[in-house]
Amino acid sequence: MTLLVKITLSIALLLSIAVPFGAFAAGEKTRGRYKVALGVNTALFFGVMLVAAFLMFSQTAFAAPEAASAVSQSSAGLGYLAAALSTGLSCVGGGIAVSAAASAALGAISEDSSILGKSLIFVGLAEGVCLYGLIISFMILGQL
């Protein structure tokens, strides 16, 4: 990546962070103001991304002499990405499920303490989603 592309992407990141916080730093917080700030943020971010994409893809690309090794490296990288996504997304989904099940279980236990075992089963099932994602990622890493 060239220095110009890196600078452009850094500017896009800074704009996407600075614009919303700067727009809401002072003054009355109304719905219209939120909409304007979101629109400005979206326009600036995608505008800078378009410029970065133009700068990144405007140069001539040449094929590498050893394309086979590049393909195997690319597939290994995609395998690592798949393993990370399976673990990460399953943990996010499991966290959402545990938050719903645990809060409902606490409410039910506060009314009737005899259902503690039943409620723990549902919370455990929600946590099992995370373990399944981790097992899948180990299976993917075993194939690389």
Relative helix content? over 70%
Terminal CA distance: 27 Å
Q: What is the N-to-C order of secondary-structure elements (H for helix, E for strand)?
A: HHHH
Radius of gyration: 24 Å
Query: Which structural class is indicated by helix and strand composition?
Result: mainly alpha
Count of discrete structural domains: 2
What key attributes describe this structure?
144 residues; mainly alpha; 0% strand; flat
Task: Describe the protein.
The protein is an all-alpha fold and 144 residues long. It folds into 2 domains: 72 residues; 62 residues, Up-down Bundle (F1FO ATP Synthase). Helices cover 84% and strands 0% of the residues. It has 4 helices and no strands. Helix 1 runs antiparallel to helix 2 and helix 3 runs antiparallel to helix 4. The mean pLDDT is 79.
Tell me briefly what this model is.
With 144 residues, the chain is mainly α.
List the helices and strands and how they pair.
Blueprint: H1 3-23, H2 31-57, H3 67-111, H4 116-143
